[in-house]
Amino acid sequence: MREKILHKAGEMFLNLGYKSVTMDDIASEMGVSKKTIYKYFDNKLSLVEEATIAMHESCLTMINMIVGQGHNTIKENFEVKKMFKEMFQTADSSPVYQLKKYYPRIHEKVMKKEMVAFSACIRSNLQRGIAEGYYRNEINIELYIQFYFSLVFSIHESTVENYKIPELEREALEYHTRAIATEKGIKELEKQLQS
């Protein structure tokens, strides 16, 4: 039951917003009493934190599945971007923006975890991209990880309207890729932008 509550709460937080969803809303949506939810979570704050961490872990699992499909590194980045777009498409406002605004301590904690986990993914992508000839040999991998994070997180943390995020993310990914790509990488980038 605990996992079902986490899943439903996470889904509702993403689609309806962290602030607007109440414990009553979650109980009603699940067809259980509020008492059932409080059996597993002391308050909304603890549910928000655990649901957000569960969503973070779910994203990481999906990214690892995409990486395991064996795409070239540029296509892999576009597949990850597509996964996030599908995941957040029903939300009216940015979940990351809301989390930062209404639950700053949880936001900070989750962002620290994301920096560690997603840095490893980006580092691997950059190293493979260099080996595959899509990215230039001389790039400073650690610096480019920081650049890309700064771009992506600034989009999510400062953009209220969720519908704008996919386009801004696509622009950030194109900007990032053009900055590090070889001629072979630019050709693959153009191919991905057209599809």
TrEMBL record:
The keyword DNA-binding applies. InterPro entries: Homeodomain-like_sf (IPR009057), HTH-type_TetR-like_transc_reg (IPR050109), HTH_TetR (IPR001647). Residues 1-59 form the HTH tetR-type domain. Gene3D superfamilies: Tetracycline Repressor, domain 2. PROSITE patterns: HTH_TETR_2 (PS50977). Coiled coil: none annotated. It comes from the Bacteria. Residues 22-41 bind DNA. Keywords: DNA-binding, Repressor, Transcription, Transcription regulation. Transmembrane segments: none annotated. This is TetR/AcrR family transcriptional regulator. It comes from Asprobacillus argus.
